[in-house]
Design the sequence.
């Protein structure tokens, strides 16, 4: 499966391959491996070949990447992109990245990222409402998940 990250103009800005783990009516979960050099990020280090379990939704304004360490398999946290709903087709998943992101640490701490980048895009009120609604839905999902543990 080819995963295509696009900008607002619909141009592909990053692409990589993954393996489908499951498919539902409005979502797909894919396994992929981090294909960049080791990179310090928040309270972790993203390492080349860390395992990503990525869920894309055709009816939600975000995706969720569950990240596992390449060396010991431990969960590192969740990286969530605020996006337009994904387009899921035979052989590919594409999404338009809307700059805003949410990092959720294993301990449940949530950090909103790239609000400055979002402001620079100047997207307008309607789109910003959808973006922040997606962010708030994600934040609530992780609060609920935390209380179940």
Sequence:
């Amino acid at each position: 499966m080819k995963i295509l990250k696009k900008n607002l103009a619909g141009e592909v800005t990053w692409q990589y391959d993954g393996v489908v783990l499951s498919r539902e009516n409005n979502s797909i979960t894919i396994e992929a491996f981090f294909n960049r050099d080791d990179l310090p990020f928040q309270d972790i280090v993203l390492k080349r070949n860390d395992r990503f379990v990525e869920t894309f939704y055709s009816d939600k304004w975000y995706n969720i990447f569950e990240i596992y360490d390449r060396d010991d398999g431990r969960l590192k946290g969740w990286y969530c992109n605020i996006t337009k709903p994904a387009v899921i087709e035979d052989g590919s998943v594409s999404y338009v990245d809307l700059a805003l992101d949410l990092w959720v640490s294993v301990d449940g701490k949530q950090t909103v990222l790239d609000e400055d980048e979002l402001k620079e895009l100047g997207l307008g009120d309607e789109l910003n409402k959808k973006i922040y609604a997606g962010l708030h839905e994600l934040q609530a999902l992780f609060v609920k998940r935390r209380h179940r543990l």
Remarks:
- The chain is about 20% helix and 50% strand.
- The helical segments are 115-121, 125-148.
